[in-house]
TrEMBL record:
TFIIB-type domain boundaries: 27-60
Entry keyword Transmembrane: no
Protein name per the record: Transcription initiation factor IIB
Protein family per UniProt: Belongs to the TFIIB family.
Pfam families for this protein: TFIIB, Zn_Ribbon_TF
Gene Ontology MF terms: RNA polymerase II general transcription initiation factor activity; TBP-class protein binding; zinc ion binding
SMART domains: CYCLIN
Length: 351
């Protein structure tokens, strides 16, 4: 009787040990020029090179700096070992500038609620929260108005000072911020009118004027900066000539219109023509007068839309300029052929 051979049992496959890679500590980097058994290898992180300190041969480049990065954000000289957060803001000196957010997910243990209570007790005071909210509103409105960061910082300084001295207690926050932005534009020689600020912030002109007058007296600003004067506009005051750049750009006028229009406005101020009118009205009337003089046709409606004043106001300023046209128009403009008095319409409503 033949017996069958039993099937051999499957043998376990031996595991092949994967080679591990690591630095060979027995290998030393030696300069090929010096061949010194004790080389002086220097890592120059400023240039990213690996240099032999003996002969100066560059052994490698693009060395990564693995050291800790210590940057100085302090305003004063000295070491500042701060490695977290953004640069310190001088407007928020003495205030906590870092926020802590605690998650609600704690697996049902209730630890998150306790941590939130502890964080709320240690949070900033109400006045600091209001100041931070005002700073955010100022930054947002300045961005919407395409104002530079300089004006944004000036407006924040004005608001912080008014908040510390309680100058406008009881006034709406939006009105106080609008007044600070208006004053900042004047001080930075980037003039904006009351109407433009009111349209941006949705604050009534009356409330804005009250806040502006209060800040004007408290900060010892130039009195009557919102009105034009006989003489050249003082520092911090917006004159009609300061508004010409934006208005002429919006009207797509050629470059030679603006300087001539500015000379006409300055000459009219010296002669007392259109005295007492707002800078916006004078700018609108002067632009229409100059466009007719130089044969650059622009309708009163177009100028009224850009300047934000009524057509009747522009016509009134034009009539005052037309009555003294011989004094306002220089002879050299007529000789050069740039200007002709015959182009000026007798009545502003004829165009």
């Amino acid at each position: 009787m033949a017996y069958s051979q039993p099937f051999p049992l499957a043998q376990p496959i031996p595991k092949v040990q994967q080679p591990t890679f690591g630095p060979d500590l027995a290998v030393r980097l030696i300069c090929p020029e010096c061949r010194d058994p004790n080389p002086n290898i220097v890592e120059e992180f400023s240039s990213g090179d690996l240099v032999c300190g003996t002969c100066g041969l560059v052994l490698g480049d693009r060395i990564v700096d693995t050291r800790s990065e210590w940057r100085t954000f302090a305003n004063d000289e000295g070491d500042d070992p701060s490695r977290v957060g953004a640069a310190s803001d001088p407007l928020m000196e003495g205030m906590e500038q870092l926020d802590t957010a605690i998650s609600f997910r704690d697996g049902g243990s209730g630890i998150a609620r306790e941590l939130q209570r502890a964080a709320s007790r240690s949070a900033a005071s109400r006045s600091e929260r209001n100041l931070l909210q005002a700073f955010r509103d100022i930054s947002s409105w300045c961005d919407q108005f395409s104002l530079p960061k300089t004006i944004c910082d000036i407006a924040k300084q004005l608001y912080k000072r008014s908040d510390e001295e309680k100058l406008l207690r009881g006034k709406p926050l939006d009105a106080v911020i609008a007044a600070c932005i208006f004053i900042a534009c004047r001080q930075a020689h980037v003039p904006r009118t009351f109407r433009e600020i009111c349209n941006l912030t949705h604050v009534s002109k009356k409330v804005l004027g009250q806040c502006y007058k209060a800040l004007e007296q408290a900060f010892n600003l130039t009195p009557g900066a919102s009105q034009d004067r006989h003489h050249t506009a003082p520092t911090g005051t917006t004159g009609a000539e300061d508004l010409l750049v934006r208005y002429c750009n919006h009207l797509d006028l050629p470059p030679n219109v603006q300087p001539i229009c500015k000379d006409i406005i300055v000459k009219a101020r010296e002669l007392g023509i259109a005295d007492g009118r707002s800078p916006v009205s004078i700018a609108g009337g002067a632009i229409y007068f100059t466009c007719c003089l130089l044969d650059k046709p622009k309708t009163i409606k177009e100028i009224s839309t850009v300047a934000g004043v009524s057509e009747g106001t522009i016509k009134l300023v034009y009539r005052l300029y037309y009555a003294e046209k011989e004094k306002l128009v220089k002879e050299e403009w007529i000789k050069d052929g740039k200007a002709k008095l015959e182009r000026l319409p007798v009545e502003s409503g004829s165009k």
